[in-house]
Amino acid sequence: MKAYKHILFDLDHTLWDFEKNSEETLYTLYEQFELAKYGKFTCDSFYRKYRFVNMRLWDLYNKGKIDQQELRRSRFVKTLTGLGLEEHEVPEGISEAYTSLCPTKKAVFPHTYEVLEYLQPKYGLHIITNGFKEVQQVKMSSAMLHDYFKEVVTSECCGYKKPDQRMFRHLLDRIDVNPEQCLMIGDNFECDIEGARNAGIDQVYFNPERIKTRQRPKATYEISCLSELKQIL
């Protein structure tokens, strides 16, 4: 086993529980913006539709096909028109309300703090995320994650997005280490695992739902619970 010195974490869907926090936020917005009055969809279907739309928009964003403004502008328009509203019926300010409220939510994956407490004395811990800088800062503060990490690199601050290996190299340059000394942990196979591999960094595929991947090179390690990191590190 390699003697790693630095551990790189993705944030959303790896430490910060995006789905749980987003669901709670969307239920609040359903009430706040009185979406039930349209009589076209339930709160549950609103959440499911938003999740479907948002995942696909983020995939386009990660591939450089849309920018931050388009992602934020279109996600609620596509969600609500897909549920039967006319575009002019989409409540003004709902996207901004989501952007303000969701990052303040505090849910993290099971064993997050326990594992970070275990790793912090042994390794340099860092965040590498395609999320937006100001939003990720709020998430980390709300969930009390900031103190565990030395460097937080976002796609906005370095000009590249995972899986572009230049984003990984940007972080390696900041902490002045070789890729062989690092281990990347993330939930997105393309962005986190293949991106890190292409940069010469070993990887841990965090796969809590045990999704079977297509036929392609496996990650160096695969886990379904963060507590399993103790068996690796």
Automatic annotation (TrEMBL):
<dbReference type="GO" id="GO:0008253">
    <property type="term" value="F:5'-nucleotidase activity"/>
</dbReference>
<dbReference type="InterPro" id="IPR006439">
    <property type="entry name" value="HAD-SF_hydro_IA"/>
</dbReference>
<dbReference type="InterPro" id="IPR023214">
    <property type="entry name" value="HAD_sf"/>
</dbReference>
<dbReference type="InterPro" id="IPR052550">
    <property type="entry name" value="Pyrimidine_5'-ntase_YjjG"/>
</dbReference>
<keyword id="KW-0378">Hydrolase</keyword>
<dbReference type="InterPro" id="IPR023198">
    <property type="entry name" value="PGP-like_dom2"/>
</dbReference>
<protein>
    <submittedName>
        <fullName>Putative hydrolase of the HAD superfamily</fullName>
    </submittedName>
</protein>
<dbReference type="InterPro" id="IPR036412">
    <property type="entry name" value="HAD-like_sf"/>
</dbReference>
<dbReference type="Pfam" id="PF00702">
    <property type="entry name" value="Hydrolase"/>
</dbReference>
<dbReference type="InterPro" id="IPR011951">
    <property type="entry name" value="HAD-SF_hydro_IA_YjjG/PynA"/>
</dbReference>
